[in-house]
Each structure stands twice: as structure tokens, then as C-alpha cells.
Design goal:
Keywords: Glycosidase, Hydrolase, Signal. It comes from Flavobacterium hungaricum. It is an enzyme of class 3 (hydrolase). By secondary structure, the chain is of the alpha+beta class. The chain contains seven helices and 37 strands. Helix 2 links the parallel strand 25 and strand 26. The longest helix has 18 residues. Bound molecules: alpha-D-glucopyranuronic acid. Alpha-D-glucopyranuronic acid binds next to loops.
């Protein structure tokens, strides 16, 4: 009984305060109302709307203060002192970062408040949730002056129940967003990408029944391509409503199951004649979950992914990952989020000859994942455990783990995702090894079906061999590493002489290589920053890479030039990392065609 009450309280507290319940999955196919569009914002560098002049925190005070911005207060007469007004403040489009929308905020790192007013007529016994696709970096969220919660992490979704707070008219959803970087955050202070602040993904209201399907996994059972297995989890389970069915009409499946007292149904369903998902056949099945008369639909692909020795094996067949790395940026030089943004990036990857993309260095938005699923592009998804994370700090670990949990919860039914990546170029130490091992174990506890990797740094041994000698290789299914011959060191002329060795008999992915070129800047192949230099760098690197033992894939750095505050060479970088094969203006550089030819040959070899 205690368990049942706990479950009930998880959904909403008896005091009407919202609780940050577990993440609701498959939001695009639920009964939703979008809060995207024009919001008001207030730039608040001194957090005047959050702290009193003696730095008391307004949202922890018993008596609500009209000075607290989350109360969206308006003066009731000509005498009253109120020093803010959302409705008279500037407007911004949400989703969207402030860097690319408000020129004055280009370099701003600090606090900005956002407010959206809306009406909502919530019918009796229905429940309402606010679901936020991502906020970079930290969000304090309020509805009608009530604190819903605080979320950290710039690239993963979160939600709150607002059933007992929402009103039919004049609701005001207020977010305090802080993109200040901190050493102890994930990512840490130092990255090679722009710190886009704001509400960077969709804001959605989700309406549900009293008991509803909160989350589920419907995938092939590990090591058994003839069984579809997983779980269905009911929020606020009522034992009187314990029937649920899973229909996959094309597979002639109409499975009926009984939900346990813990609100969970675990199932295994024999399935024949599955058309397995692959880049050549990105087959997605219509799946429908029927719980208590509520239908929740999804489109799910079924495939197996495993390693056999030093091969990556998809549906029982060894594959080579013809990839490219991608940052989440749109044509306007801001955070990408829309389907259109996703297609712009993925179509270039397809044109390059890719069957795989490395979505760096953080979980990208759900649109690009679902578009990759449809297009047949396999995906490496990673969390921003990047460079010098505070590996000894337990709260930092918890933050990383929470981001990983949210990414896996959101995307675990997407066949295109074949790799979860734990980290990028993290310096070797005992604390870092332990941190990564815990993340690996956590990943396996949530999803034992996908492969696990991390982008490692390389060393060269006394004989000049490139070596991958990193203890966490023991925990990884795939050994991936970044190397920058000819850009950060080494001579391109020596490329064919450079040999690599690894102690692991595991598949190897070269997760990054590349060099900068300013599109349209031409010269000799030995002149850095020219397209010819980048072209020669690709030609030489590929000669070296194709000799790497156990090579099973590569994802050159990077598809498109992207903004970085570290890249300041005037007239060449101008705050852009220029390693793109395509410029941020959409111009294909000469190296694009080198890579395209190499992939075309690779594809022919494989078929
Ligand atoms: C690193 C890092 C990237 C960075 C790239 C570069 O390997 O993983 O995030 O942008 O190198 O230096 O351009």
C-alpha cells in the first residue's frame, strides 16, 4: 500500500504543488498544446526578480512579493511601486536562443526571464503537464507564481505537473534562465562551442487522464531478433484499470497484458517476418498502445546492433559507419531545433554518402533523432561530459547521469540510435575512469541493447605509433578516438608512414579528424586555412586511417562550420570553427568532395 501511495504522490503532491515527475516519453504523439511562439523576456543580470536587496530568495519566502518577477505583477494604481512589466518588455521567439535573436545579447551570459500567458480549460479529472524540450543551462520554472522546480542541463527535456495550478484564463508560465558557465557543471567552463542561452527547444502542455502511459520501451529483445520486448509504465496506476494492449498491425500483433501493482508491465511478444530497420530499409512500424481507452501511437523500427570481435554488426551483417560529426546549429547561426533545421543537416550528410552521424557533443533535439530514424541514418548520441569535468564531485556525476537518463528515456525507441557515448576527450585519471565506468553501468541498466563508446584522446608511443591506451577502453564496446594529424601536430607528408595499434580487439571508430578552411580562400596545399590545405589534409589522413586496425567507422570533424568563442582569427575564423566540410553559408568546400568520393568507394566495397 505504501508503494501505491508513493506512486500516487510521485504524480502530484497533496498540497497542489507541482512535482517534477519522471520524464514523459513520446510527447510528439500525445494530446498536446504548444506554447511555442512569441514570449516576453526581461534581461536580469543582477537577478533582481529573484533576490531582495539583501539577497533573500523571493521564491522561498512565505509572503509572495510583488517584486518577484515570477509573480508577473502589475501595479494596481498610480501610486504603487513596481519596477518591471513583462507585457511591456521585449519579445522573443521560443524556441530559440537569445544569442542569435537579440544582437545585444550575443555575448551575454547570465539571467533572462521569459513569460508566456495562456488560457487553458482543463476538464474535470484530466491532468496537465508542462514539458520543456531543453533550456540552456539552468531553469527555475513557475506557473501562476508557484515554483514548479529547477532544472540543470542544457540539452535534455524535463516536465512538471500543473493540474492543480492551471486556471481557465490568464495563466502565466515564467522561466528564469541562467546560462552562466561553472567549473562544476556538465559541460564545464571550457568548451569549443557557443554557449547559446535560452529556451532552445519546444515548450508543450500535455493533457492526460488520471492514469496514463508515462513511458515505455518497445524494441527487439537483446540477442533475439524474433521477440519484441520491453515495458509499459503507468503513471498513477489504478489497479481497477490494469489492462493494456500493444498493436502492431503490420506484424499481426495485438498483444494484451496485465499491469502489475507497481504500475509496470514487462512483456515479450514473439514476432515473425519483421522487416528490420537499416540505412537501406529504414522501416518504421505503426505501433499503438491502448490503455483504458487511451491510444498512444508511435512509429518504431526494429533492428539488432551488436559487436562481433572487431566488427559492428547490424541485423547480423558487419557494417562500416560512413559518418560525419554534427553540432546542433541552424542556418541563422543559432541553436537548431526544427524539422527544417534537421533536414538541412541530415540531407548534407546523405549527400556526403553517410549512413551514420555523430551528434556532438550533447543530446540533440528530438526532431533530428526522429528524422534520422525516417531517413535511415544511424546515430551516435552523447552527453556533454567534455574535457575537464569535475570528476571527483558527486553532484557533477549526478548531473551527468540525469542528463544521460533523460536522453535514453526520450530516445530509447529510436532504431537509428546505435551508440550512447559517455564522454569526449576527457583527461585520464582514476577519478575520470570511475566516473565513466559508473555512467557505462548506468547506461546498461537502462538500455542493454545499444553499444557504448566515448571519444578518447590518443597517445603516441616511443616508436611513433599512434596508440589508444586508455583504461576505459575495457568498459567500451567500441573504441573511438579523435586525432588531428596535420592540424594540431604531425606532418601530412608522413601520413602514410604512421601506423596505429590498439590493445583491444574491438571495433574502432575515428570519431574526429579534420582541419579548418575558410570557404573561398584558395592557395597552395601547404597554406593553412585554404580549402586546398583542408583538401590535402583529408587526402592524407584518409590514407593513414584506412590502415588503422579494426577500423569500423569514422565521423570527420565536422559537417558545418560552427560558432565558437575560442576561434578568433580575424578574416578567417571570426568566432567560427572552420573545420566544416560545408561553410555556415552552405558552401561545400573542396574537402567535401574528397570525403564524398572516399565514402562512395567504401560503399561499393561493402556491397
Ligand atoms: C576536439 C573537440 C571538438 C573541437 C575540435 C577542434 O577534438 O572534440 O569539440 O571542436 O577538437 O579543435 O576543432
Amino acid at each position: 500500500m505504501k508503494k501505491l501511495i508513493t506512486t500516487l504522490l510521485l504524480g502530484f503532491s497533496i498540497f497542489g504543488q507541482a512535482q517534477n515527475i519522471n520524464l514523459i516519453s513520446n510527447v510528439p504523439n500525445r494530446n498536446t498544446t504548444s506554447l511555442n511562439g512569441i514570449w516576453n523576456y526581461i534581461v536580469d543580470p543582477y537577478e533582481t526578480g529573484y533576490y531582495s536587496f539583501h539577497h533573500d530568495v523571493y521564491d522561498q519566502q512565505k509572503k509572495p512579493s510583488n517584486a518577484a518577477y515570477f509573480n508577473n505583477y502589475h501595479a494596481v494604481n498610480k501610486q504603487e511601486l513596481v519596477e518591471y512589466d513583462f507585457d511591456k518588455s521585449p519579445k522573443i521567439t521560443i524556441p530559440g536562443d537569445w544569442t542569435s535573436q537579440v544582437p545585444e545579447l550575443k555575448y551575454y551570459e547570465g539571467n533572462v526571464w521569459f513569460k508566456k500567458s495562456f488560457d487553458y480549460n482543463l476538464k474535470d479529472k484530466k491532468r496537465l503537464f508542462v514539458y520543456i524540450g531543453a533550456v540552456n543551462y539552468k531553469a527555475d520554472v513557475y506557473l501562476n507564481g508557484k515554483k514548479l522546480g529547477t532544472h540543470e542541463g542544457g540539452f535534455t527535456p524535463f516536465n512538471y505537473e500543473v493540474t492543480s495550478i492551471v486556471k481557465p484564463k490568464d495563466n502565466y508560465l515564467v522561466l528564469k534562465v541562467d546560462n552562466t558557465r561553472h567549473k562544476e557543471d556538465v559541460p564545464t567552463l571550457n568548451t569549443d562551442w557557443w554557449n547559446y542561452g535560452g529556451i532552445t527547444r519546444d515548450v508543450t502542455l500535455i493533457e492526460e487522464e488520471a492514469s496514463f502511459v508515462e513511458d515505455y520501451t518497445i524494441q527487439l529483445k537483446k540477442n533475439n531478433a524474433a521477440v519484441i520486448s520491453g515495458f509499459i509504465k503507468i503513471n498513477n496506476f489504478n489497479p481497477a484499470q490494469n489492462q493494456v494492449s500493444i498493436a502492431i498491425p503490420e506484424l499481426k500483433i495485438n498483444y494484451k497484458g496485465k499491469i502489475g501493482a507497481d504500475g509496470i508491465l514487462n512483456f515479450e511478444i514473439p514476432a515473425k517476418k519483421i522487416s528490420y530497420w537499416s540505412p537501406e530499409n529504414p522501416k518504421l512500424y505503426e505501433v499503438s498502445i491502448d490503455f483504458n481507452g487511451q491510444k498512444l501511437n508511435d512509429k518504431i523500427g526494429f533492428r539488432t546492433i551488436e559487436t562481433q570481435g572487431d566488427k559492428i554488426v547490424l541485423n547480423g551483417k558487419p557494417i562500416f559507419l560512413r559518418g560525419i560529426s554534427i553540432h546542433e546549429e541552424n542556418a541563422k547561426g543559432g541553436r537548431a531545433n526544427s524539422v527544417e533545421d534537421a533536414l538541412r543537416l541530415l540531407n548534407w550528410a546523405k549527400e556526403l554518402g553517410c549512413n551514420y552521424v555523430r551528434l556532438a557533443h550533447y543530446p540533440h533535439n528530438e526532431n533530428i533523432i526522429r528524422e534520422a530514424d525516417k531517413m535511415g541514418l544511424m546515430v551516435w548520441e552523447e552527453i556533454p561530459v567534455y574535457w575537464t569535468i569535475e570528476f571527483t564531485r558527486k553532484e557533477t556525476y549526478q548531473n551527468a547521469q540525469d542528463q544521460l537518463t533523460a536522453a535514453i528515456t526520450r530516445d530509447k525507441n529510436r532504431a537509428c540510435i546505435i551508440i550512447w557515448s559517455m564522454a569526449n576527450e576527457t583527461p585520464i585519471s582514476d577519478a575520470r575512469n570511475a566516473f565513466i565506468k559508473k555512467l557505462v553501468d548506468h547506461t546498461k541498466s537502462l538500455d542493454s541493447t545499444r553499444l557504448i563508446s566515448a571519444a578518447l584522446l590518443t597517445q603516441s608511443d616511443s616508436e611513433g605509433f599512434g596508440t589508444i591506451n586508455d583504461a576505459i577502453g575495457d568498459y567500451l564496446d567500441i573504441i573511438s578516438f579523435n586525432q588531428y594529424l596535420g592540424w594540431y601536430g604531425g606532418k601530412l607528408e608522413d601520413a602514410e608512414k604512421i601506423l596505429w595499434k590498439t590493445k583491444y580487439n574491438k571495433p574502432v571508430i575515428v570519431s574526429e579528424f579534420g582541419g579548418d578552411a575558410k570557404a573561398g580562400f584558395h592557395g597552395e596545399k601547404n597554406e593553412r586555412w585554404t580549402e586546398e590545405y583542408q583538401e590535402y589534409l583529408y587526402i592524407q589522413n584518409l590514407k593513414m586511417i584506412e590502415k588503422i586496425p579494426h577500423l569500423s567507422g569514422l565521423s570527420p570533424w565536422i559537417l558545418v562550420d560552427f560558432r565558437s568563442p575560442r576561434r578568433l582569427l580575424p578574416g578567417i575564423q571570426d568566432e567560427y570553427n572552420r573545420k566544416g566540410l560545408v561553410s555556415n553559408q552552405g558552401e561545400k568546400k573542396k574537402a567535401f568532395f574528397i570525403m564524398q568520393d572516399w565514402y562512395a568507394k567504401k560503399k561499393k566495397e561493402q556491397n
